[in-house]
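Why do we care about 3D structure at all? Because function follows from shape, and shape follows, mostly, from sequence. That is the central idea of this module. The next example makes it concrete: a single protein chain, its amino acid sequence, and then its structure expressed as tokens.
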Amino acid sequence: MNKKHTCYCGLYCENCAVKVKVEPAAKVLHEEMKTAGFEEIIRFIPGGEGFWAFLKGMAEDGICVSCRDGSGNPSCAVRVCAKEKDVEMCAFCHDYPCEKFAAFFAGYPVLERDNALLRDKGWEAWAELQNKRRAQGYTYSEKKREG
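And the structure:
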């Protein structure tokens, strides 16, 4: 596990639907459209050049690299706070959990439990859980399968 793919809040980028589902789909769509000749005609479609540049970038480079490397919302309150306090992960902060996490816990039901695991058992246990989920094709967008 590469720690650069961890978000300060405790989410693991490699279990995000963008990485697991959207980026692979973008690769397929880009290749299909290229094969069908859209690369030559895309400029004649309103907004086509911008769309093509976006799709190509997503297919070749991906769209998200992690909030540690500059992706995501630059004004995310959790991210800003963690950087200001110079904490590796919020779970390790003496103020955790704080009021900034109410929305995260509502949107990501596994996050509170995951951060407790990280705080209580450390990186190895947390990474094992995240890698297990990844191997099962889990994404945070799937509320039913909380791995």
